[in-house]
Amino acid sequence: YGKNTIKFLRLHREGKKHFVKEVEVCAHLRLTSPQEYLEGNNSLVIPTDTIKNIVLVLAKKNGIPSLEQFAIDICNHFMTTFCQVAYVKTYVQEVPWQRLHEDGVPHIHSFICVPDGIRFCEAEQCRNGPLIVFAGIKDLKLMKTTQSGFEGFYKNEHTTLPERHDRILCGELFCKWSYGECKDFDFDCIWKKIRECILEAFAGPPDCGEYSPSYQKTVNCIQMLVLSRVSQVQVIEVVLNNTFYNVVDMKNLGLTNDKEVLVPVEAPYGSCACTLGRKKFFEA
């Protein structure tokens, strides 16, 4: 049981310069005894309102040095404070505020919300067990208008999809990775590096791009690039929910539409998912 959607803004001041972190937290506990379920005995139950207040107090006292560290702080607090807690899991996601710039000069106290992907993390721990940390990015919308196709696929009497060697590749990406056991990582630096890998693998070189023969291959390229460059990542999951565009037929309007006006296909939409990890992690 636990408390969901604990939302708050943490404001930190350094002189005239302000820093913000707006987050949403979910904190779930499992107790050593199920007596509240079986017997209606609530003597071990930590009220969800207390859970919420603990999260807010930790934000006040510790700040949010990184999402991952804040999730770790929450787990550590429940494990060290309450002997009846057998397991704790914390989820934290961030509202994407970015500092405003004017003529290249950063503003000291103004911010803009930029929807370029939502950062999140999870931390979980069993009593006498290791602290496990996950991190990720979701709702990251990506598009490239060429260098994508889909050809040579299996066909039978139910196949109506034509082969395409030049199409728009567009989708909403979810990516989650595991660090394995928690160590003293620079979580902010790693997250930014993985985001850069995602964008590079999706788009390819800026002057020419990179051809994608399928959404599946693009998903794998993202995973392989992250695993090759970020040694701290043990397992990475990527889900790419696809958005398809159809070219508008303008013949009746006396116009030739050379893929200049397209409309999105709202539903149904495709989805590609894959989990990839290092061999040593799966053997362990």
From TrEMBL:
Binding site residues for O2: 48, 242
EC primary class: oxidoreductase
Key words of the record: Oxidoreductase, Peroxisome, Purine metabolism
GO CC list: peroxisome
Residues that bind urate: 48-49, 150, 167, 216, 242
Source organism superkingdom: Eukaryota
Entry's Gene Ontology BP terms: purine nucleobase catabolic process; urate catabolic process
Molecular function GO labels: urate oxidase activity
UniProt pathway annotation: Purine metabolism; urate degradation; (S)-allantoin from urate: step 1/3
Binding-site residues, 5-hydroxyisourate: 48-49, 150, 167, 216, 242
Enzyme nomenclature, EC number: 1.7.3.3
Protein name: Uricase
UniProt cross-references to Pfam families, sorted A to Z: Uricase (PF01014)
Keyword DNA-binding on entry: no
Compartment(s): Peroxisome
Organism of this sequence: Promerops cafer
Similarity comment: Belongs to the uricase family.
Record's catalysed reaction(s): urate + O2 + H2O = 5-hydroxyisourate + H2O2
Keyword check for Oxidoreductase: yes
Function description: Catalyzes the oxidation of uric acid to 5-hydroxyisourate, which is further processed to form (S)-allantoin.
